[in-house]
Design a protein that fits this description.
With 843 residues, this protein is of the alpha+beta class. The chain contains 30 helices and 19 strands. The longest helix has 46 residues, at 480-525.
Length: 843
């Protein structure tokens, strides 16, 4: 009899895992066929991390630095393994299986844990997990390849659930699990999502404090807080190496303030407001939470042949129309573009509103407050008063870009309150009249809005986008007649299709709201006899039927390709092959055939002048904005207008900064041989003169005035290294890079007198150790971004080796912290098992 009871107790948990597995691989059947998703950001990651991965596989060590992008930068925010943290093994286990399958399973299981922690029935928690995990944003970012982001979101729910568990009387278990999931979330490596998690926790904590004061349980509250602070501290220690290196680099990344006054900088630390708020949700765009196609859905939406757009274009060319409708820009909101909206579900929005009427105050008000704040912050530049306040006064907020990302908060909190409302409405004591009143209002508000936009779609706007006219011009091929046809036919057709999408989605949202409200009404108001398990299954099915088709718009089988096809993404071009066959090491490449500073494909094969990363070095970003953009633009125009090789040579000679960065090859056409730059300064060279700059503005200005082969410019803070010295030109002197790895560069030089050397490597003072003939030596910053040294006469060997203390000491701290954390987790679980057995024996 006991075994049967035990089996029944564990049945929902076993069934939950089974259902989550079935749902995951029904959504991603291609994973079972061995196919993998072709993600833009993953391809970008492969490009930027190739040198790092190759070095790791060859040596078993972490390079910690790479020269593959932006002339060189720390590898911390690209690809670094922190082996000291033993929690890595747990992280790998929790994401078992092919990437997207593992991510969706993590989201489902994490959501299940959160709901269980709130005391929700296990069966209802299964249905609720589908509502939380299937939020459209999770699938949009999986399609984009934002893997660290989706994993960090995956740990948000169980982390929040563990904290809630701590305050619900399970202090030891809740505290232990909080430490585990906190460590895992930090390990996932997306600080912005962790920052938003902290915002949720702060609102929850304030609510708990208010109730503790009311109920005279302040002592218990602070005991719980104290235990959480200690365990979070241990979780931080387990990730100390990652955090120490990232925080150290943060002061030198573009998240920090530039010293240049010539740039459009505000006075605050962090990103500029225009840059941080470029992706801002329109205020009316918030309706996508309930109606997915409210603003057209996404940039690339495939229309069918019954669409207005196809019919309009078919009158011009059916083949063209068939190709065009496969990737139509139906989005017409205020963002520069989007791969998909944040849709939490029509049913979830209805239940969220219902929760405002019937859920206990302990959860209702903090969830409402943090949800509303997140929505308003997502408006960014469209609600500047609040945005500017947070950017200026809230610590850490200005470090992050893409403010729309804060909508990860509503995608957790709205279904959370919604499931609590469903729990209350279906299974708890509640006055029937109160419930009927709440049902009428919540269904009336949400259903009424859906009906309003169904009947009067023009309330959403005029359905036009500034991109429409550019699209017409783009496909007109400079033919005035075709352009006129497209303007007269394509633009109105796009507007008609957007209106149709809004009507369709408003109707489907109305249907789901009516069905959800109807089920509750029939069961609790009319007293219809429905098996509880079937009722919960019905809601679970409704959640999936609501969310599944919408998510398939943004991540479907078309995204999956055979692995053999994915490997072809990095096939070397004719230009690549030519460069790879040339002798020499650390030769830099400027690729003009791609968007230089928005593309990392060049980095897969070469050391690139450009690249793509949201946290490139601050000084390199300054160089891009003040010099490189102009030089690249000048070079591009000169190459197009060049009549002879001498014209090309003249343009290359003027590119002072590109030359000092040792830009040896320029790819203008990947299908032909690259341009070889004879004016590239080399890996290192001697100069005989210098100019001391009084500030950063002057130092950058001098870069366009000096002859970089004979002079350098140096900040006055480093002037003591050279002042009073005379450097006599020595035509017989030589210096060369004789051995290269990402973390270690070895040079040999010979000079008859003391010399001033410039190295075409990016200066970063944290971690580079320099020796001359195995004796410690000093280097300093020159030419705003490069390394310089005063070298003694004679023949010597110079070694630059990257050994940052923040990493190597941090790894030891991480090892100790992760051991402590594992012991705490095992202790917490052991204590819970012991107390349960004790209660069972007593019972």
């Amino acid at each position: 009899m006991t075994k049967k009871k035990d089996f029944k107790a564990y049945l929902p948990y076993v069934l939950a895992i089974a259902l989550f597995l079935i749902a995951t691989y029904m959504y991603f059947p291609s994973l079972l066929e061995g196919k993998r998703i072709q993600q833009h950001d993953i391809l970008t990651f492969k490009g930027m991390s190739k040198e790092i991965v190759d070095y790791r596989e060859k040596t078993g060590e972490e390079p910690l630095w790479t020269n593959s992008m932006f002339g060189g930068m720390p590898a911390y925010l690209i690809s670094t393994k922190y082996k000291g943290n033993l929690i890595n093994g747990i992280n790998d286990f929790l994401q078992i299986g092919p990437a997207q399958g593992g991510y969706l399973l993590l989201l489902l299981i994490g959501s299940f844990i959160l709901l269980l922690a709130l005391g929700v029935n296990p069966w209802l928690s299964i249905a609720g997990a589908f509502a939380i995990a299937f939020s459209s944003y999770n699938f949009v970012i999986m399609a984009a390849g934002h893997n660290s982001k989706v994993v960090t979101i995956g740990y948000l729910a169980p982390l929040l659930g563990s904290i809630i568990l701590t305050f619900r009387g399970k202090r030891i278990l809740g505290t232990a699990l909080t430490g585990l999931f906190m460590s895992l979330q930090i390990l996932a490596g997306h600080p912005q999502i962790t920052y938003y998690t902290l915002i949720i926790v702060i609102f929850f904590g304030l609510s708990q404090l208010i109730f503790a004061l009311r109920e005279k349980q302040v002592r218990d509250f602070f005991i719980s807080v104290g235990m959480l602070v200690v365990i979070v501290g241990i979780a931080v220690l387990s990730n100390f190496s990652r955090l120490a290196t990232t925080m150290e680099y943060d002061d030198y990344s573009m998240r920090s303030k530039s010293e240049l006054t010539t740039l459009d900088n505000d006075d605050s630390e962090g990103l500029s407001i225009p840059y941080a708020t470029r992706w801002s949700y329109g205020i009316d765009e918030t309706m996508t939470l309930m109606i997915p196609g409210f603003k057209g859905g996404a940039n690339n939406v495939e229309l069918d042949r019954d669409s207005n757009t196809y019919e309009a274009l078919a009158r011009l060319d059916r083949n063209f129309a068939g190709q065009f409708i496969q990737h139509v820009n139906l989005y017409w909101g205020k963002q520069p573009g989007t791969m998909g909206p944040v849709y939490v579900g029509a049913i979830v929005v209805f239940l969220f509103v219902l929760g405002m009427f019937i859920v206990h105050n302990r959860y209702r008000w903090w969830i409402l407050a943090v949800t509303v704040l997140a929505v308003m912050l997502s408006w960014g530049k469209n609600f500047m008063g609040l945005t500017e306040f947070f950017m200026e006064y809230i610590p850490g907020y200005s470090k992050f870009r893409t403010v729309t990302m804060i909508l990860v908060i509503p995608q957790i909190t709205m279904p959370l309150l919604g499931i609590l409302a469903l729990k209350k409405a279906l299974f708890e004591e509640i006055d029937r009249q109160k419930l009927l009143h709440a049902l009428k209002w919540s269904a009336g508000i949400t259903g009424g809005l859906a009906l309003l936009f169904l009947l009067f779609p023009s309330l959403a706007g005029n359905f036009s986008s500034g991109y429409d006219m550019r699209l017409a011009q783009m496909y007109s091929n400079d033919n005035p007649q075709i352009r006129q046809f497209l303007v007269q036919n394509l633009v109105p057709a796009l507007e008609a299709d957007r209106e149709a999408m809004l009507r369709t989605d408003a109707f489907r949202s109305l249907v789901f709201i009516v069905l959800a409200a109807g089920l509750i009404y029939l069961y609790r108001i009319k007293g219809m006899k429905i098996n509880q398990y079937l009722l919960i299954a019905g809601f679970g099915l409704l959640f999936l039927v609501d969310m599944w088709p919408v998510n398939k718009r943004f991540l479907n089988e078309d995204y999956f390709k055979p692995e053999s096809e994915l490997k072809q993404a990095f096939t070397p071009s004719t230009a690549d092959q030519f460069i790879l066959q040339q002798p020499g090491v650390n030769k830099r490449v400027l690729n003009l055939s791609v968007s230089t500073f928005q593309d990392a494909s060049t980095s897969y094969f070469h050391h690139s002048i450009g690249g793509y990363h949201g946290a490139k070095m601050r000084r390199y970003q300054d160089l891009i904005e003040t010099r490189l953009d102009a030089e690249i633009s000048m070079l591009f125009d000169s190459l197009r207008a060049a009549q002879s090789q001498s014209d090309v040579a003249a343009a290359l000679k003027q590119a002072n900064v590109l030359n000092m960065l040792n830009t040896r090859y320029i790819i203008a056409n990947p299908r032909s041989q690259p341009i070889i730059n004879p004016f590239a300064a080399g890996n290192a060279w001697f100069v005989h003169d210098y100019r001391v700059a009084s500030d950063a503005d002057e130092e950058v200005q001098l870069l366009s005035e000096i002859d970089i082969r004979d002079e350098l410019t140096i900040d006055r803070r480093y002037a003591a290294h050279v002042e009073g010295k005379t450097f006599v030109p020595d035509t017989s002197a030589s210096i060369a890079l004789i051995d290269y790895t990402p973390k270690k560069l070895t040079y040999r030089y010979n000079a008859g007198s003391e010399q001033l050397a410039v190295f075409s490597e990016i200066y970063y003072e944290k971690g580079w150790q320099i020796t001359v003939d195995e004796k410690d030596a000093e280097h300093f910053r020159v030419n705003y971004t490069l390394r310089g040294m005063v070298l003694p006469e004679g023949e010597h060997q110079i070694v630059f080796e990257f050994r940052p203390k923040s990493y190597y000491m941090g790894e030891k701290v991480s090892l100790a912290g992760s051991i402590l954390l594992i012991l705490a987790v095992l202790g917490g679980i052991g204590y819970e098992v012991y107390t349960r057995r004790k209660r069972t024996i007593k019972g």
